[in-house]
Amino acid sequence: MKKKLIGRIMGGALAVMLAFPVTGLWGLPMTRVSAAGEAADSGTSQPEITVTKVQAEDAELSLEIGSDMSSQFVEEAEPSSDEGGHIKTSKIGATVTLTFEGTGIRFYTKCGNGAGKLSVQIDDGEPQEIDEYIDSSTAQFKELLYENLELGETNESHTIVLTTLEGERSNFNFDYFEVIQTESAPVDEPEKEEKSTIVQAEDGDYVSLDPQIGSSMADSFVVESEPSSNGGAHIKTSKIGATVTLTFEGTGVRFYTKLGNGAGKLSVQVDGGEPEEIDEYIDSSTAQFQQQLFEALNLSADNEQHTLILTTVEGERSNFNFDYFEVISLEEVVEDDYIQSEGNTTYYLDSSAAPDGDGRSEDTAFDSLEDINGIEFAAGDEILIKAGSEFQGQLYPKGSGSEEAPIVIDMYGEGEKPLIDGNGRYSDAPTFRDNGPFGEEGSAVYLCNQEYWEINNLRVKNWSDDGQDKERSGIRVEAYGGGTYHHIYIKNCDISDIRGYNGQDSIWDVVPENGGTTFYGSRTTHRTGGINVVSYTERDLTNATSSSTAGAVIDEEPTVFDDILIEGNKIENCHANGITTTNIRGELDNKDYRHTNVVIRGNEIRNVQRAGIVPLYTSGALVERNLVDTFQQTYAGYGCGIWCDRADGMVFQYNEVCNGKNTMDGMAFNLDDMTENGIIQYNYTHNNVG
């Protein structure tokens, strides 16, 4: 007799005690039905049910299959039976036993006026009687005679035993079983995106050095300050056999370093594999910095621990440089789920308020930044923070206002301005491979792709005592993806103690085709400090191998800000800059990539490591009545009191700029690369070294 199994059981094996082998159980098409017995929608999140058909002759039979019904099972060819036949017997006490994994079972058979009764027993439970008899001379085929769909919620092993019983009639038929199995709804794998993390070669949290850092290249690693290296420094050695070992969790890694005509070769080994040789030598008297020298991607399908070992190799040259690693990992994409404000509503925030307030009054104020961060605000909304409140973390409200009704953040009550303390939060350092914004991680107050906002009367800090200058900001406003974002006003805020990035790195350089001066189009430092307004131009980075090989712009239109007012703020003790605007990877000489209607007025900026005010990528910026006192204190990079590049039509007037501390550049004002039609007038400068 031809045998056929329809479908297969998901999530567990079908254990059938067979009188002879069954083939083809796995890999056959699966018939899925819903709990109601209808085909299930493949997109449903409900548990799926699978049905597997098992012919009775494929179960364990207590008698052999033969030709004598009185002592054997007999195969009866019958077109109306399932698969064109069934088995039958007249022997009392014969059994058909099926062991299966599932949550339910059905038994189908032929019923007729000569058929007898069966006992059915599940898992050694109480037997019950079922009857194949019908009072009709016309037999009925494939009749459901027994069903039990309550064997449990999960697929477990069960046994059904059918036994022929003595009675008036002694013909017994067995056609097929249906095994019911519940398949849990597939768990959607979280969407993941690739993330890059910069690890400096001297970072002791991830990197081990042998020998350690010291003062002699002959027998140790030495830290070399170099503005063009990532982070403003790299390590080097001349000791043969020295190793730099990076242990990381991720899927891939890249190594970047300084290349030069005195540099030697390194051996690189990943996860104990075959070592390969890489060479830091270039035939040029001009060193090249932050150059990718090695790449190993797709080391694992998901984040796993890997180890990379760099070893200095004996050869013609014995200077070896190590700048940084770029660790590639996968990060889950988190779906945003914000409460939608109806607009024209005032929300209150008070760090001393009772928990679980609705934020709609002073008496029921919100008590955490998370309450505010979880709302998408609308035109006309106000966020009022009680005087004297102190919060650690980040203020990142969502949504946008309108031209007629901007969203306003301000204080209420009497006393000190409310404090938002980022507590040293920072973004990962960008590389030439990164498109898009710095991200929310690195600032105490943050907006992204939002417009018509006014931020007033806050105290803001973002300091860390870890001794490392990182990608930190006090207030950072970012935009990307194309379009113009309007009306960003930041007024009367007190911003202090921002440990940002002082280095002179570059993640996008423009090298003239016919030679000449390289233009440095994007630096990390221009995005860190007190107040940073930053737009991003997306480029094709598919074939980028260095900061000078970014591809064409892929945005449909430039991303810029219009109507920026930064007024009356006090900014003190910031690494690196006080106030900046910029456009990362924007076209250098295309005015469409410049911010418009930028006014920076009446701010006091004291004790910054690099520049005071830097309105990069602007057209018609007005910078007036500001004080910049004590700037350009670091040797990790260059800065002036007030300067700009990629700008036109700027006016710097009625400013006081004093106490520039070194000659990198250290002067009061500078109209730098690609500036035109600028006016510097009516300013007071003194005590500047540059």
Automatic annotation (TrEMBL):
Family annotation (Gene3D superfamilies): Galactose-binding domain-like, Single-stranded right-handed beta-helix, Pectin lyase-like
Which domain of life does this protein belong to? Bacteria
Which InterPro entries does the protein's record reference?
PbH1, Pectin_lyas_fold, Pectin_lyase_fold/virulence
Q: Where are the transmembrane segments?
A: none
Q: Which residues form the signal peptide?
A: none
**How is this protein named in the record?**
Right-handed parallel beta-helix repeat-containing protein
